[in-house]
């Protein structure tokens, strides 16, 4: 096994009431399958793992185990609290340009004020962790870091044992765990509260016509049951194989795996520049290249979809105006074509103010009108009242950041929560004055397809 020792750091970090030491060791390893590394943690770290791959496939992250968890239920303050604790934990870390740093991975739930019960009952409003074993694959190189955050005085022996475990995990990922996974066998499929959903679209369009809001995104849930409990690697393997053009993510908390394949970036920060994307307005893919092109051209001209899109561009542009010294927004949307669907798409980029941070941008941007609505507060209270579900992490920010402030968050759409032998799939759409219940319903069917396919569900077309 090729291993190159890269860094070993021992730093004191001031915590609320105790002094902690953060031990870090990073090695370079010969390239290995990220999914196999994830699967190597099945016995010991199930419930404490994450998987991430960006759209361009230039960065893959896997985390096994929790070296340090930052979580809270602090409502609007949750973004600031995560940022403060992360800064405190990493303030003495020596940042080496060429090496992967400790990464904080996690997500913020869609709406801390939604009190509906269901599969998200035990999930905190913000959940982030530094992995015990962190895999970073970047620029075709694979790095594994061991992290230990402890209040014990001398932990070198413990750290030595962790090195041995690291080598076992790498070995398992490289030689033992390479396997192909069967498609799940679905035994039941339920469109939860379909009538309530259709009625909510009617209700929300009438509220919009009466000027109670301009746009509101309404979503619904599909429940699937399987013959047996599914494993996270099994489910992720199908998503990875079938949705190459999206952000791929998986985040475990105890028995729950939240996973998905999203086309939508919330924000990326790299070296003082910020990048976001407006993705809203949809049409299905055509059966032939010609039909597909025709659908795309129709979408680019369609007043209802351009309306859905425009709200998102306006709001993201305002947020960039507030946080950037300069920024660019193209005048007209382009098409973003992914496997099942085409969207209107406008990329936005800017140079950040000195005091703007990635979590500040997440806080300002979330939820954009592609997921919430306009005005934001009115839209959120309409969602709370008329939507039949608790979104949990669906439509919410999921992603990572490092100690230098670089990072990326996707909007967790085209996603599902898996708990043992049941999965809950989520999809919604932007409702504006001229929305119609049946066409919105059909749009959600298209948006369910990626997760439905990954889980072995029937597809209607
Ligand atoms: C809310 C979802 O999609 C959003 C993102 C792109 C297009 C959308 C639309 O056309 O309605 C939605 O705003 C979803 O996929 O569940
Ligand atoms: Mg739509």
From TrEMBL:
InterPro entries the UniProt entry points to: ADC_synthase, Anth_synth_I-like, Chorismate_C, IsoChor_synthase
Catalysed reactions listed for this entry: chorismate = isochorismate
Highest taxon of the lineage: Bacteria
UniProt keyword list: Isomerase
Gene Ontology BP annotations: salicylic acid biosynthetic process
Keyword Hydrolase applies: no
Class of enzymatic activity (EC top level): isomerase
Entry-linked SUPFAM superfamilies: ADC synthase
GO molecular function: isochorismate synthase activity
KW Isomerase (keyword) present: yes
The EC number(s) this enzyme carries: 5.4.4.2
One Pfam family matching this protein: Chorismate_bind
Family in the record: Belongs to the isochorismate synthase family.
PANTHER family xref list: ISOCHORISMATE SYNTHASE ENTC, ISOCHORISMATE SYNTHASE MENF
Protein name from the UniProt record: isochorismate synthase
């Amino acid at each position: 096994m090729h291993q190159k020792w890269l860094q070993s750091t021992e730093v004191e970090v001031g915590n609320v009431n105790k002094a902690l030491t953060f031990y870090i060791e990073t090695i370079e390893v010969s390239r290995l399958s990220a999914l196999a590394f994830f699967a190597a943690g099945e016995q010991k770290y199930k419930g404490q793992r994450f998987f991430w791959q960006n759209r361009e496939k230039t960065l893959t992250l896997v985390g096994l185990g929790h070296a340090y968890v930052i979580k809270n239920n602090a409502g609007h303050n949750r973004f600031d609290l995560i940022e403060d604790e992360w800064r405190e934990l990493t303030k003495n870390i020596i940042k080496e340009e060429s090496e992967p740093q400790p990464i904080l991975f996690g997500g913020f739930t869609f709406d801390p004020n939604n009190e509906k019960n269901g599969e998200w009952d035990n999930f905190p409003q913000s959940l982030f962790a530094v992995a015990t074993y962190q895999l970073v694959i970047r620029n075709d190189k694979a790095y594994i870091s061991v992290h230990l955050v402890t209040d014990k005085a001398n932990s070198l022996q413990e750290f030595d044992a962790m090195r041995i475990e690291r080598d076992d995990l790498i070995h398992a990922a490289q030689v033992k765990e390479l396997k192909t996974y069967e498609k799940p066998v679905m035994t039941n499929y339920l469109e939860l509260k379909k009538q309530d959903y259709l009625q909510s679209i009617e209700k929300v369009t009438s509220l919009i016509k009466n000027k109670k809001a301009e746009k509101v995104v309404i979503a619904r849930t599909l429940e699937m049951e399987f013959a047996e409990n599914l494993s996270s690697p099994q489910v992720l393997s199908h998503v990875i194989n079938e949705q190459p053009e999206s952000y791929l993510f998986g985040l475990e908390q105890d028995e729950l795996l939240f996973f998905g394949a999203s086309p939508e970036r919330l924000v990326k920060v790299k070296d003082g520049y910020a990048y976001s994307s407006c993705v809203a307005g949809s049409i299905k893919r055509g059966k032939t290249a010609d039909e597909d092109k025709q659908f795309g051209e129709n979408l680019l001209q369609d007043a209802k979809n351009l309306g859905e899109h425009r709200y998102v561009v306006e709001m993201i542009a305002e947020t960039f105006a507030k946080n950037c010294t300069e920024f660019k927004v193209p005048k007209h949307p382009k098409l973003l074509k992914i496997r099942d669907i085409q969207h209107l798409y406008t990329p936005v980029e800017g140079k950040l103010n000195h005091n703007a941070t990635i979590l500040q941008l997440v806080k300002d941007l979330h939820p954009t009108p592609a997921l919430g609505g306009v005005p934001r507060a009115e839209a959120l209270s309409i969602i709370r009242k008329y939507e039949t579900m608790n979104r949990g992490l669906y439509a919410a920010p999921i992603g990572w950041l490092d100690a230098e402030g670089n990072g990326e968050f996707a909007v967790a759409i085209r996603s599902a929560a898996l708990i043992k032998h049941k999965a809950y799939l989520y999809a919604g759409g932007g409702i504006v004055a001229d929305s119609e219940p049946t066409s919105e319903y059909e749009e959600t069917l298209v948006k369910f397809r990626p997760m439905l396919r990954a889980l072995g569900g029937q597809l209607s077309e």
